[in-house]
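Box 3.1. Reading complex inputs
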Amino acid sequence: MSKIAGHPYIPNSVPEVKEQMLKEIGINSVEDIFKEIPDHLRFKGKMNLPEPILSEYALRRHVEGILAKNKNCKDNISFLGGGTWQHYVPAVCDTIASRDEFLTAYVGDAYSDHGKFQALFETASMVGELVDMDVVNTPTYDWANAIAISCRMASRINGRKEILVPKSMSPGRLMVVNNYCKPDIRIIQVDYDLNTGLLNLADLRRKISTNTSAVYFENPSFLGVIETQVEEIVKIAKDNGAIVIVGVDPSSLGVLEAPAKYGADIVCGELQPLGMHMQWGGGLSGFIATRDEKEFVAEYPSLLFGITTTSKEGEYGFGEVFYERTSYASREKGKDFIGTCTALYGITAGVYLALMGPKGMQELGEGIMQRVQYAISKLTKIEGVKLAFNGYNFKEFVLNFDETGKTVAEINEGLKAFNIFGGKDLSKDFPELGQSALYCITEVHTQEDIDKLVEALEAVC
Amino acid sequence: MGIVKVRKDFQQARWNEPIIYEMSTPGVRGIIPPEPEAAIKAIAGDVIGRLPASIRRKTAPYLPEISQKHVLAHWLRLSQETMGSNIGNDISEGTCTMKYNPRVNEALIAEPDFAELHPYQDEDTVQGILEIYYKFEQFIKEISGLDKVTFQPGGGNHAVYTAASVVRAYWEAKGELDKRNEVITTIFSHPCDAATPATAGFKIITIYPDEKGIPDIEALKAAVSERTAAIFMTNPEDIGIYNPRVDEFVKIVHDVGGLCFYDQANANAFLGVARAKEAGFDMCHFNIHKTFGAPHGCSGPATGAFCCKAELAKYLPVPTVEFDGTKYYLDYDRPESIGKIRDFYGVAGVIVKAYAWTMMMGAEGLRTCADISVINNNYMEKKVLAIPGITSAFQGNGIKRQEQVRYSFEKLHADTGVGTDDVNARIVDYGIPSYWTSHHPWVIPEPMTLEPCETYSKDDIDEYVAVLKEISKEAYENPELVKTAPHRSASHRRNDEASLDDPEKWAVTWRAYVKKHLSKKKEMDSVS
């Protein structure tokens, strides 16, 4: 008998059941259904795949055996950031994210999935407070996707075809933005100041014009620097009629100003720090926020979940807002395209923010900045190790190792012997910074962890 | 076989759960972040006070203040007000392949050896996850018959967008992008087959079906030209009908130099039965979160696997995952790549789950999924079409449906005034998730699309049919009951749909709701 008969995932694979169903259909074999596929289009061979592992225990041993070849950031001390960050994931976040109801639901309407609608509405509500905006979308694939969509929204709003972005932005995110904007938007990079890491305002003034649809900048920047010239950048943009798009790491927003307060028209960013495990970069989830003005709302490609009333007095109901905008409703006439993105991460981010509350977000931000200051003061005492920029940092900072005579690759290789993953090597993507690395410190790092890094670097450099 | 029971007394959890902001009490905390050690604080000093005023937050973010128990309870309650497919009889979401999502796979991705991996770790510290990516790519190559795969796209539509980007790169490399600016699709292909090439800059031409429900081949012949960049098509389309002349479609497009992309969101019935390769396609994609057993997560995280022939592989997003015989590695040295369509390497957790799922299936298991899916569907179709008021798209055209059927309540609506939206609301009262009607436009009136994939037992199908029969009876006997549904769901029927399209009334955040509705209400209350 077939090994698959009675497979735990396929109840009707039991031969008697299958036979009965064929009989009720009035056919002898499944081939009577597949006959609709002409013979020359049929696959005749047997797929070359491994034999199935039918025992769940054996399967688990098999997959865990492969995963055990990894070295993880729990058993090692990692100082990697740059777009995925190691934060503490509260146990309640894991509990909610693994609930079968949220884990396995999909596109059901609010009548079967009221809770899903409310959960995503609440996440939008809390993210809206962090950035000070009234409209927040259901999550995008990631921050990069959110920037790309924001750029296209801006271009549709004012009809202009150039977007200025900082040269210090993440190369990965820039590649995504370039791809999305390729048809008709030109992405122009604005220099950053090599001493401060801040946007070079003179270069911004040189490159901005009435063709500029939007100025995008990040706070903190990919290189870890807090952009302090926000008022100047916003003024230059607005003087030229450009839209201001700000990208943020929301874990900073307990202590850093809400972007709308300093003039952002569109805010986007990454939810991964808010309760998602890193998962080799698979924990990403982006968001976009704007004012509640029709000209902005009309340009979102994303689903927007709105609160409304029901036939029962006093009861909250939920539904899709302005659905006709979307490609689900209007195919190629919709705004860009929408699909399955990262809703479960969006729900989890809401749980995280409700757990943290205002005080938690303040303490998180302050504690991270304190650890970073401590680390910088210790690390820069090591001979040959320099802080690349002299501004303010949130959770990341660039260390330059030129004077050690060693490459970042050599240093990171040396750190591995101490069970430390050193900062991301920037030498390829940012050659102007020499042998530099982007270090990340969050609330998961203890004084002992940082001191170990200092000791290890002293030994390695 | 068990007992088939229509759950007439079903009642979904109805917590009347307040919005999270309504539960807030100043000073209450849900979790406390780890405090830095005294030495850190002493050396760091007043890091916040030193920040320039322009960037320092002046007022704490207005977030709710709630104890941990109450945060947990709130979201547990919201979860109970959601019908996940692992709980419900989710034959409902046709075109979505709502399979069982095995718990063991969730346990695997919770392991620190996966969950706590940083994407910038050195390759020699992530050999395990690279191995899973590489091996799963070999599986997908075998299943599609194509030569190279990327798992970077974050969903099916994103994979189709990747295809559009590859088509663009192909024509750009040939210097013909200005001329090759049209993409052809069919109306019963998923909307993304029109929307994503449009996003990538192409003009869209849509082919409608002939009288049998198959895309009109004469219309295609009239549509192709030296402007044709590609065709993006599904097969079987979302109505469940396999296009037997699909290879002729491919040939017609190839003959004018165009590329052919096969949207395989509906691949479940064809695992080991028919492949993109035999039909001549240059590219295809799979929804890994559907067809390969990973969950949908209320709409992601997900993965679309984009597959292509060797000659298009140079355009794939960077990095690809390669193996040199000893070591797995990431290859960024691909100068003609379209770049990236998502940061890092895609949703790695979906790949781990899908790898584990496929290992539990093997070739025979995959083929069994296909067999049982089409048997389930034909069994169900026969029973559903016996219910008064229900017909199907192109019914009686003599073509057996494959993995799904697009039904229609047009007759029920004409007879009783009860339409598909009403039935869809009422079905929830029997513990069944809302079903997928159809993508827009509703070419088939009052649609319902059901897909009883291999997960569902005969009893599940019988239960579903019995519920539809019951609702049909209600529609003929007491239509108001159906038109005012749901009655036993977490919430009742929306009574002001227009408000969701009205800029003065819509509210997608609590703060917007407070401004637009509560503040006004307060004003009105104070006046009265």
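In summary: Chain B has 17 helices and twelve strands.
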